[in-house]
Write a structure and sequence with these properties.
Strand content: 25-35%
Shape: globular
CATH superfamily of the largest domain: Peptidase S8/S53 domain
Helix content: 10-25%
CATH topology of the largest domain: Rossmann fold
Mean pLDDT: 89
Low-confidence stretches: 1-24, 602-606
Largest sheet: 9 strands, mixed
Number of domains: 4
Structural class: alpha+beta
Oligomer: single chain
Length: about 950
């Protein structure tokens, strides 16, 4: 690495002095933990674990995995958190949209490390295995045999037969040692009553044929894009690129289903990243849960078409949600599972809210389906009346309901399908989804008043009931399986589904589009809007055109009766839709374009008149057989990042157009042209960018076109590509990529300053057609930066242009691919250190960073240390397998694509050679060897 060796060491020394350790938190476990002195934890009895269902005690050896000890903040911490959440959503506040990392959350709102260690030690003393410890220091997961759980928490675990299914649950309230009582909020996982998916299949047998001769229709991705006005966003490049969202499930999946769905409906190839919750039980592929996982992944990706989707799963979907939040996997999380509020323990309900508050503080928006049982969510004789679904009823979660199309006599469908299998012509009017009459009651959108959570201050507006209850849903999208169902590949075949299961991940996809738009236009520095509910309700009252007000239909249903109760006659309950908000469809469905571009009530951001453009080519003298890269750079002002396309022409004839990609105020468009496309002699090439209200901005470059060529370009051959630090086959946006081969450049040269150049000595490189900045060129090796905008979860192509001669090679792109810079296998600049010492290392391959930085650029020298770009995904360092405390992580001023980490060598670590591993977003680097001294 000729360009970076000295730079790394220079900046390491400068920043190390600025990164001071944070003061330790106060410990609240102040006396020895005595198992004989106990405190009972209330609210842990599952409402379905009734005496009449009791089948006796479980086997003492029955394994019980991933029981979480939920840890409580102090009253002061809770008040501080609630205050911060308000400030994060208040424009003008110093904390507006300043999201916390999980480690910052731990330092501010978690228990002390000392308390955490004591509770973990107590659990191990009970014979339990510590399966996981939260980064946020607000829970510990333990596993063990039933007898060990019973002894640890002083309760009995019994089997219960409920609706023909056998479950286990605690038969009495658990307890913990009194010394720990102030630090422990709840125990979660002492039962296996699992949430159910909100998924429906059409009435009767259906073989989807996209646009049926019988007059029925099924929804393809482009149908939904047309109905909810997503198509203009895609045309403007707002398709989820650079964004991520997490889907929570409770089954493994078969990737071929996802691949077949995307291929069949002309969506770009994008495999989700699959992640089993570490330490949790692997359920394998569950036939009951697989359709839910497939439809969630397919339809979130059908909306956010180029977003990176993380599928995180366990045998308990809520464990997956908890892990996604704790690890900050994505700024959007979606779950299509739920439980009736009245049949969920109080401790579990409050635990969900505590997770949601942490999610919001980290900038995460959590979506949940509102349920498919109409106004009677429990759907049984135990609770046949009005009820709503968890977690959608949590105020910090956005609950998504379902609508149904009402065409009337209108012409909304084409008689044929286009190449993407779509046939919708325009928006179709909607009513509340309720197919109970056709499918058997209940089959309707969930909604109503919470029995657990009070009305939040932001839930106001026309139609909002005047009680003191939180109401759901907040928003809706089409949810009927019958009229018209969504097409889903699952189990190797194309099927049709409906229910609020699909609107939830679809709306999560819209949120990913919103996040991309806000980052690209610099309306915010980092992806994520946290709890979006306050803004949704404000928009409904202030900005016309964002919502389709659904005022027809209802979610009135009759709850099912027990098969053992032949005389049961449950009442019909539910709510009618109406003008404004209603407890059947919430605020209504959305116009996605208006929602995204008018977020916070502001009009779509206009292009500033001061937008400028420059044009470069790698080859000023070109032969008719040569290929030249035309690279236009468009720079905005006032935080605006240009979007759209640049048009290229020569001698009045068009050469083609290329889409702009970029962030932080700068975007580039690259077009490859053959010399034969240009007129012989001296040719003036123009690049024009036009976007209202600014006039077109034009740049030009003069090229000399000959019939014989310059003769300066060798024919390049690429032998391989690798991570520029680890030299492994691991690749992520923003990282240094080393390209090896022959005839890659005519000479050897290094970048002298930043921003990095995009052409040197007639050499230019693109990744997926976008200009890639150059660190270093030589005949045998190029070091380039992979543009931050490069899509992940798919194959990328690097193209080297050496003075008109071109070679390409493809490689897989991941969300993160950390590689540690080393010298002789040791991390630089600190190859050795003593236990407890704070030292530095450097990596590349962190993926997206927040706040974003332009490709090829470095953070300005005036950037405050806390505001330096840091990995968007969670970060972890271990030394000898022991987690180290990260004191600082970020891209230093004047460096490009290189992240500095200041970390503390764990106390008590063994002397000698110890592996150092950096993990970003769950992906571990190759180890570097640190020598630990006295």
């Amino acid at each position: 690495m000729p360009f970076y060796s000295s730079a790394i060491i220079r900046f390491a020394a400068a920043l190390l002095a600025l990164c001071l350790p944070i003061a330790a938190q106060q410990s609240h476990i102040t006396k020895a933990i005595d198992n004989k002195e106990r405190v009972t934890l209330k609210g842990h009895l599952h409402p379905k674990a009734l005496a009449e269902n009791d089948q006796g005690r479980v086997s003492p050896s029955m394994p019980v995995s991933y029981v979480t000890i939920e840890l409580a903040p102090t009253a002061g911490q809770q008040a501080d958190l609630d205050g911060l959440l308000g400030e994060q959503q208040t424009p003008g506040s110093k904390n507006y949209h300043r999201w916390l990392t999980p480690d910052e959350y731990a330092q501010r709102f978690g228990v002390s490390q000392d308390d955490l260690n004591k509770i973990a030690a107590w659990a191990r003393g009970q014979g339990l295995t510590v399966a996981a410890v939260a980064r946020g220091r607000n829970w510990i997961a333990v596993s063990g045999a039933a007898a060990q759980m019973e002894q640890a928490f002083q309760t009995e675990l019994h089997h219960y037969l409920v609706a023909g299914e056998t479950h286990f649950a605690n038969a009495s309230e658990p307890s913990v040692p009194a010394a720990m009582g102030g630090a422990v909020r709840a125990i979660r996982g002492l039962n296996d009553f699992r949430a159910k998916p909100a998924r429906r299949v059409p009435h009767g047998s259906v073989t989807p044929d996209f646009n049926s001769s019988r007059g029925s229709h099924y929804l393809a991705p482009n149908d939904v894009a047309t109905i909810y006005n997503m198509t203009p966003l895609y045309a403007a490049g707002i398709d989820g690129t650079g964004q991520s969202l997490a889907i929570a499930g409770q089954t493994a999946i078969d990737l071929t289903d996802i691949q077949q769905f995307r291929g069949n409906f002309s969506l770009p190839a994008h495999d989700p990243q699959i992640m089993l919750v570490p330490g949790a039980h692997d359920p394998g592929i569950s036939k009951d849960d697989l359709p839910e996982a497939d439809l969630d992944l397919e339809w979130s990706g059908a909306v956010a078409r180029n977003a990176s989707i993380v599928y995180v799963y366990s045998d308990d979907v809520f464990q997956a949600v908890q892990y996604a939040i704790d690890q900050n996997l994505a700024p959007v999380v979606s779950i299509s599972y739920g439980s009736c509020e009245l049949e969920t323990s109080t401790s579990d309900a409050l635990a969900l809210q505590s997770w949601a508050k942490q999610a919001n503080a980290q900038g995460i928006t959590w979506f949940a389906a509102s349920g498919d049982n109409g106004g009677a969510d429990c759907n049984d004789s135990q609770n046949p009346g009005l009820a709503v679904d968890l977690p959608s009823s949590v105020p910090e979660v956005t609950g998504v309901g379902g609508t149904e199309f009402t065409e009337g006599g209108g012409q909304y469908w084409s008689t044929t399908n286009d190449t993407s299998k779509a046939s919708v012509l325009t928006y179709i009017p909607e009513m509340a989804w309720n197919d109970s009459a056709a499918d058997g009651s209940p089959a309707a959108t969930g909604g109503g008043a919470s029995a657990v959570f009070a009305k939040p201050a932001w839930q106001t507006g026309p139609g909002v009931p005047g009680d003191n209850a939180r109401h759901v849903p907040d928003v809706s999208l089409s949810g009927s399986a019958d009229h018209d169902g969504y097409m889903v590949y699952t189990g190797g075949s194309l099927q049709v589904f409906g229910g609020t299961s699909i609107p939830a991940p679809a709306f999560a996809g819209i949120a990913a589009l919103l996040n991309q738009y806000l980052v690209l236009t610099h309306a915010q520095q980092a992806a994520g809007v946290g709890n979006m509910n306050p803004t949704l309700y404000a928009l409904a009252q202030s900005v016309p055109g964002v919502f389709h007000d659904v005022a027809a239909g209802d979610n009135i249903v009759t709850a099912a009766c027990s098969s053992r109760n032949r005389t049961c006659s449950n009442p019909a309950v539910g709510y009618s839709a109406g003008a404004g908000y209603d407890p059947a469809t919430g605020l209504g469905s959305v116009d996605a374009f208006n929602l995204v571009t008018k977020w916070n009530g502001a009009p779509a951001i206009a292009v500033p008149a001061s937008t400028s453009i420059t044009l470069l080519t790698n080859l000023n003298t070109v032969a008719s057989t040569d290929v030249a890269f035309l690279i236009a750079t468009v720079t905005g002002s006032n935080g605006f990042t240009p979007v759209g396309a640049v048009e290229f022409s020569a001698g009045g004839s068009p050469l083609g157009s290329a889409q702009l990609l970029g962030s932080s105020g700068t975007a580039t468009a690259t077009l490859a042209v053959k010399g034969g496309q240009l007129p012989l002699g001296s040719a003036t090439v123009l690049a024009a960018y036009t976007a209202a209200p600014a006039a077109a901005v034009i740049a030009s470059v003069t090229m000399s076109v000959t019939s014989t060529g310059s003769g300066s370009g060798g024919t390049p051959a690429i032998g391989g590509v690798s991570n520029g630090a680890s030299f492994k086959a691991a690749f992520a946006p923003g990282m240094i990529l080393s390209v090896f081969g022959s005839q890659l450049a005519p000479s050897t040269s290094s970048a002298a300053s930043v921003p990095l150049p995009i052409t040197m000595a007639g050499v230019a490189v693109t990744v997926n057609g976008e200009a890639a900045p150059l660190y270093f060129i030589s005949p045998g090796q190029l070091n380039i930066q992979i543009p931050y905008e490069t899509a992940t979860g798919a194959t990328a192509t690097v193209t080297v242009n050496n003075n008109g001669q071109v070679a390409s090679q493809s490689f897989p792109m991941a969300l993160t691919a950390p590689g540690i810079f080393t010298a002789n296998g040791a991390p630089v600049p600190n190859t050795s250190a003593s236990s407890g010492q704070i030292i530095t290392l450097f990596i590349t391959g962190t993926g997206a960073v927040t706040p974003p930085v332009s490709t090829g650029a470095a953070p300005p020298a005036t950037t405050p240390i806390p505001d330096l770009p840091a990995p968007a995904q969670n970060s972890r360092v271990t030394v000898g397998g022991v987690q180290a405390s990260i004191q600082f992580i970020g891209i230093p001023s004047a460096l490009v694509g290189v992240t500095q980490i200041n970390y503390q060598v764990p106390s008590g670590i063994a002397l000698g050679s110890q592996p150092v591993v950096v993990t970003i977003g769950g992906v571990a680097s190759a180890p570097a060897i640190l020598t630990v001294t006295n």
